[in-house]
Every structure is written in structure tokens, then in C-alpha cells.
Write a structure and sequence with these properties.
The structure holds two protein chains of two kinds.
Chain A: E1 7-11, H1 15-24, E2 31-35, H2 38-48, E3 52-56, H3 64-74, E4 79-83, H4 88-96, E5 101-104, H5 109-125, E6 133-136, E7 139-142, E8 147-150, E9 153-155, H6 159-170, E10 175-177, H7 178-185, H8 191-208, E11 218-221, E12 225-228
Parallel strand pairs in A: 1-2, 1-3, 3-4, 4-5
Antiparallel strand pairs in A: 6-7, 7-8, 8-9, 10-12, 11-12
Helix pairs in contact in A: 3-4, 6-8
Chain B: H1 3-11, H2 22-28, H3 30-51, H4 58-72, H5 77-95, H6 108-156, H7 160-175, E1 180-184, E2 190-194, H8 202-214, E3 230-236, E4 241-248, H9 258-325, H10 331-363, E5 371-373, H11 376-385, E6 395-399, E7 406-408, H12 410-427, E8 434-441, E9 444-451, H13 483-493, E10 498-502, E11 508-515
Parallel strand pairs in B: 6-8
Antiparallel strand pairs in B: 1-2, 1-4, 3-4, 5-7, 8-9, 9-11, 10-11
The chains are: A alpha/beta, B alpha+beta.
Amino acid sequence: MADSKPLIVVIEDEAPIRRFLRASLPLHGYRVLEAATAAEGIRHLAEQRPDLVILDLGLPDMEGLDVVRQIREWSEVPIVVLSARERESDKITALDAGADDYLTKPFGIGELLARLRVALRHGARRAAPEAATYEAGNWSVDLAARRVFVADEEVHLTPTEYRLLTVLIRHAGKVVTHRQLLRELWGDEHEDAQHTLRVHISQLRRKLEPDPTRPQHLMTEPGVGYRLREDEPGK
Amino acid sequence: MTEPSFAATRRIGENWLGADSPSRRSEHSSWRAYAWAIVTVIACTLIDHLILRLTPESNLIMVYLLGNVAVALRGNRWAALLAAILSVGAYDFFFVHPYLTFAVADTQYLFTFFVMGLVGTVISTLTARLVAELSATRQRERRALALNALSHSLLTADAPAEMLEEAARLIGHDLGLTVGAWLNGEQEGPIVAVPPPSSLTRSEVEILRAVLKEGMAAGPGTTNLPGSGYLFLPVRSAQRIHGAIGIPIPEGTQLLLPEVRSALETVANQLAIAMAQAQARAEADEAKRKAESEQLRSALLSSVSHDLRTPLTGIVGSAGTLVEGAEALDPHIRRELAQSIVEEAERLSRLVKNLLQATRLEAGSVQLMRTCFPLEEALSPALARLQPMLEGHPVEVDLAPDLPFVDGDPVLIEQVFGNLLENAAKYTSAGTPIRIEASMAGELLWVSVCDRGPGLPSGEEERVFEKFHRHPVPGGRSGAGLGLSICRGIIEAHGGTIKAFNRTGGGACFRFSLAIAPAHGKMPHPPHEVT
């Protein structure tokens, strides 16, 4: 099974969306299993052990958030949630509950494929040991020696900035919510901490990005969190 | 008429709107007036005694007549009459032979007494009447002034309840009582506008209901249920009964003075007119609002139907062509059709998103997820998102490095940036720069997005923010005219302002204000950390 095509379970009640995923995903090397309800999707999940789940948050039979929680009780499978624009807050709670990434409807297939690649890679990495260095664009982070280089120049970070960067690197390519970052950095989530987090992100951008107002890697996802954008080799 | 009730009657309505009655007032001060009459006559007698040797006897009578006028000027005709009679008596007693008796030696003097008494009486009566009329005129004037003050205060109130409150307050103030007032709630009955001093008994509530239904006054002093503890006056105009005023009448007190009643009724009438006008105004406003929303709806419909139909036509046509002739089509054409479907669908999606957003902003159902964030957190994602559109435009960003955090919803502020940038890209020719600046002015952060395009047509600076207002671009894509109205909706929801103006040297500028984060607006250095 290891070298066969990755299996994706699509839990989505809207038939047109299922249809286009069914048509396009196999073209890009994925196998697709469809479910129109949460119950059916969870059954597929238990029986087939897929590599990734695409989950619509607006299902008829169950709250999207509850589906995420239920899956996370027993499975680490990467989950990419689909949310309608009116339900912005749903996607944040879903991410905080353990979803790996999100897409807002309507989304392009290119966007979807990028998210799937990142999520699958993180899913695979969960077992594998961490790499010793991280490279993106002209950044190079030596995780063993705790040194950061931009365009071969060493940049000095404060301990907090460095920890923040490593958390983002650990989730590279994926969105990380404010709450996740706070939890991983300080273990608390109060509003002051969020303010401090924003200050640190700003500092980090100033040190690592040539133009902090138009960052190339350390991206803001408004209202959600941050995403360390990676170079997309396959794109 | 027992003494306590008499006093209470005077308390209710005394001085009210100038309604104190002259007869009551003279009764009130009668003993003083009679005393004054006696004192005056004594004084006249003393004066006469002093001037007796210096003047002809006939002049003594003149002094008494003068005294009579002085008494009459106090306004009490009975006291004046008393003074006239006393004068005749005193003259006879002290100055007519034989002295110190009322006997008269010369019968000629009887005629003198008669004329003296008559003249004194006539003068007294005329003077007293004059004084009474003068005071009545003054009262009318005072009442007019008081009513004028009332109508003034009614003018400043615009809700019927406020008007009732104002009138009740005024009446209560002048009567020295707390006066209750109710709005006519039709089916649901009386609605308390001003709570009465004590809660109504069940029968009083029934009376109040009847007053609101029938529009007749009820309670003490009226023919309807005079036993009630309250005098209820309806506030009725030609159209309807707007409400009622309830004046508590303490037990055992006399009926309100007729003058007070009539003044109260005048107030009630004036109040009714004001309330009727207010209602008419409210109805006109409502009608206008309805018409406007109707107009907006039809503008929305026509705009939406056009903007929806155009991309839909493209999608249906292209997709249909693909379905029908999939095999026969040249791969190049097939790809082009598919591409157009994607583009048109994206256009539709943007339109629907904007429509939803505009509607939600308008309905006030957008909830701000307020937080403190650096401006870049809203600006950078917008710049990244619009990268393809901004391809031909150099974007200059000038944010001072020590700008404080702003207080707002980053998702919505990102949309403002997005819409303004999209606008700039849409209406200016390729190669022209777009400049984004932010600076502090007092407690506000002012952000501007400026371009070097054709600028705004003069007079359009305000209209560009109107919904569905669009400026035709020659040969260009024109939007649904929602972007700027959304910007305004978002900024105003944040308590800020947004304006458009032409910049010197050509081009349009959009500038908006944002509140800075209150507590820790400054960008602090992370504590106890060194690099």
C-alpha cells in the first residue's frame, strides 16, 4: 500500500463539488472516496484508513467542528476543511480543534492541490524525524545550531523570536492559528499574549523579510493566523 | 365650604398658568383690604384735622375722595365701598357742626353727604374694575407666556412620549403635584409615559381606559365619575386620542378652579396638536424610508440582474458549447472556453461576495472581531491577494516604523485595502504608481491610498461612496459599484471616516481614519530579551 496513490476521503454534501473533486483529483495522482454525510465519511475513515480528509464544515447531519473533534479522538489523518465565507469563525474553531488547513469556498483547484500537498507532507512527517535545517527562498535555518541566515547573512533573533520561527517551520506551508501559536509558545491564550505575539511577528518580519509590508514567506492570514509560505517546487 | 378644603382648593391651581381668579384673590386678602380701608379713612381724618384752619371746608371732602381712590386701587370694590361710607361718617362726625356727633344742624349737609357718598362709590367702583381688568390682562399675558413656553418645549421633543413627559412635567411643576401621563396603546391599553404618584386602583384604570377610548375627561370636576382620585384629561386631536394626563386630586379637596380646568384643557389641546404633528411626521418619515428602500431594492435588482446575467451568459454559453461539441472542438478553443468559464465564475463569485457584504453592513449584522494589530497585518495580505491586478503598478508603501497598533477587525480592514487597491488598479492606466501612506494625527491613524489616474470628476467626491454608483470606464471593466460603499460601511462600523479627494498633481486619494489601540498602542520591545 505504501507506494500506491494517496487516498483522499471527500466529505461534502454538495454533489457538484464532489463531482468536480472526483474528476480533478485523480488527474493529479489521488484516489477519491466520496461521502455525502458525516456519518458515512467517518465510516470510510475507519474502514479505509485514508491519507487525507477533505471535510465540508456545513454538513447536514453534524456540526463540522464535532466531526473534526470526533476524528481527532482516534486518528491523526490530515484534515483540510472547506468553509463558506459566512462561517469564518467556524474554520478557526475547526483549525484549533485539530484541522490542518482550510479553504474558503469558492476555491480554485490550484489552491486546493497546494493545500493537499502540504497537508500530506505533514501527515507523512509526523512519523519521520525532523530535518536538521530548513530552507526557503534565501532563508536558511540551522535547527541544530539554532542559527538563522538570510541571503547568507546571519540574523540574530531573540529567544522568543527564534522559538516562534521554529513553530512556524514545524508547520511550514500550513496555516497556524493565533491560539495554536500562543499555546505552543507560552501555553496561554489571553488577549495580552496575542498582542505580544503580534509584536514578535512584526519584529521577526523586520529581521527576515526585505520588505516587511510585502512579506514573501511570513504571511498573515487575516483573522486566522500566520502561514510560513514555502517555495512551491511542483507549481 | 369648609376651611381645609377651601385652602386645598387654593393650593391646587393657585397661580397655575396665571389662572388665579380675581374674586378668589380678593377673598383671600379681604380682611387686609377692609383694614386698609379703615386705616385710610383714619389717615384722611387726621390730615383733614391738620389742614382744617388752612383750607376751605369743601377741600376736606377732596382728601376723603383721594383716600377712597387709594383704597379702590387695591382692587377690592367692597373695601372701597366701605371706605366711601366710612368717609361720609367720619366727615359728619368730626367736621360738621355739631362736632363729635352724627347729628346734623344744617340739613343742607345731607345733600353734601349724598353727593360725597355717590362720588366715592362711583370712583371706587370704576377704579376697582380697572384694577381687576388690569390684573386679568396680566393673567392672560402670563398664561400666554406659559403656553408659549410649553409649545416651545413640545417643539424640542420629537417623540410623542417625550411630549407627554414634558407636558406632565410642566403641569406638575406649576401645580406643585406629580402628574401622571399615558400613551394610548390602542389594543394593549394605556402605556405609562410618566408614572403617576401612586399606582391606580382597578376602577381608576378602568376610568383611564374609558378616557382613552371615548376621549372624554373624567374624574373630579367632570360629570363622568367625579369620585375618582384622579382627574383624567384626554389628549385628543381630530385624528385620534393620543393619550391622557392624570392629575391626582387629594381626597377632601375642592374641585379644580374652572380657570385651571380651562388652562389644562388648553394645554391638552396644544399637546394633542403637537402629538398629531409628530405622528404625521413619523408616518411621513416611514413612508420616505420605505420609498427609499424600495428605490434601493429596485436599483439593486437592476444592477444585480445585469451583473449576474452577464457572467452567467458567458458560463452557460461556454459550458454548453463544450458539452455539445466536446469532440469536434479544437483543443485550443476548448481551453479558451474553459478559461472563460473560470474567469466569469470568479467574477460572479466576487459580485456575490460584495453583495452579501454590502447587505450585511447595511443591515448592521456585521460583527467586528476587534483586536489590536499592526497595520501591515491588514495591508500585506491585501497586497498579496491583489498581486496579479497590481502587476503593472508600482506600489509605494510609506508606513512610519513606529506606528502604533490599530484597534479594529483585521479581516475587514484588509477588505478596505483590497477594495481601494482594486479600485486604483481598475481606474488608472498601467505603469502609474499607487501610494499607501499612514500617519498619526491626534488619537487617530490616517491611512491614504492614492493613485495617479484621471482623478474623480468634480462633485463626485461624496457620490463615489454611494451604493451602485459607478463611474463608466471607457472600454474598461466596470464593477457593481459596491467596493467603495463597502469600504465606507466598514470604516464607519469602526467609528472612523473615509473621504475621497483629488490630489495635487493629478490622481485620486482615499483617506480613512482608524482608532489606535488603547492600552498598549505603542509597539513595545519584547520585555527582557536581547538578541
